[in-house]
Every structure is written in structure tokens, then in C-alpha cells.
Request: fold
Amino acid sequence: DGGITQSPKYLFRKEGQNVTLSCEQNLNHDAMYWYRQDPGQGLRLIYYSQIVNDFQKGDIAEGYSVSREKKESFPLTVTSAQKNPTAFYLCASSMIAGSSYEQYFGPGTRLTVT
Amino acid sequence: GENVEQHPSTLSVQEGDSAVIKCTYSDSASNYFPWYKQELGKRPQLIIDIRSNVGEKKDQRIAVTLNKTAKHFSLHITETQPEDSAVYFCAASRDNNAGNMLTFGGGTRLMVKP
Reply:
């Protein structure tokens, strides 16, 4: 299944709580990405990282935070500052040099905040 | 930044007919254009991609065409089958050694009626 995993598949939280979504890859990819997908919409970039201990904001970073302490792992924290956190979250990874720039996606985490 | 528009948002075809999905992009420096297929409840998967030094690329029943001057690219699916039913996303990026920052279109829900 592409060597990139996300957990859990479904997550329920109360409003006001921070929650961390896991993303792990064993593809030896340098770059990792977090996207948000809302019903009937495309994928919007939250954060990305090209190297360990470095990451950049995407188009919709407000209310989210990330860390990249290991090449294999790129967890996303949805903070209480995110005004509308209920969504489907997809993690992806890719090489950053070479002939292929394909992004491989994880299975996603569906977060529901009530 | 890059902006990608995708049309139509939904497309219904009869099995065996062809389907065409169109995308336009705004950044003339974009040079990598992948297409992803997302089946219901599953992760997006790359089905075909094209670089700006090529005008057309085919893979069995799937083809992508690119018009750099007009800044648009299209996905063509011939002899559609029910298993082609899914949401299709186009994307655009600048292909460089700093990574592969994709900007996605809003998606097209393709329904193939048997």
C-alpha cells in the first residue's frame, strides 16, 4: 500500500482539544506533506517538509502545527485555534531529486470535532 | 502563487464512451502536471503525469494533453468502464530540486453508467 501509513483512520474530539495525527513512511522519501480535504473539494496544503528539522507553511497553516524530528515521521497537530477542524486529512511523501516527483498518499485520517 | 481550475465538477458518461476533464493553471513557470484518481474512501493515486517538454502522453486508455501557450491540460479516458468511476484531481507544480509543491484543482466526480 505504498509504504506510507496514517493513524488513526477515524478520530473524534471535543471542541477546544488539541489532537495529533500520525504519519509514517518507509519509502526513504525526503519530502512529506499534509493536506486537508473537505467534501467536494480539492486538496489544500497545510504544511510540508523537505528535510528533517525543517518545515514550511502551506496555504492553510493557521491553527495547525507540525514537527519533523525523524525522516520517517511527520505528525500534524490540529490545535484548538483551528476554527473548522472537521475534515479528511491526507499525508503524502515524495522524493525531491531524481526522475520521479510522484507524491504517495497515506490512507487518510477522518477527524470529527464536536 | 499557482491557481488551478478544473472542469467539470461532475461528469456522467455511458460505459464505453469517452470522458474529458480539463484544467487551467496560472503560473507559466509550472512544468509538471500530474493527475490523481481517488476512489470513494481511498487515497489519491497517480494515474498519469506530463512534463512541459511534452505535448501529449498516453497510457492504455488514458491520455493527457498539454497546451503551454494556453496554460491548460486535459485528461482523456477512452472506452470508459464502471471501475473508472472516481474523483479525478489535476495538479500543477514547478519541478525543481527544492521539492514538488503541488497545487490541486477542485476535482471532477466521474460516474460511468453501465
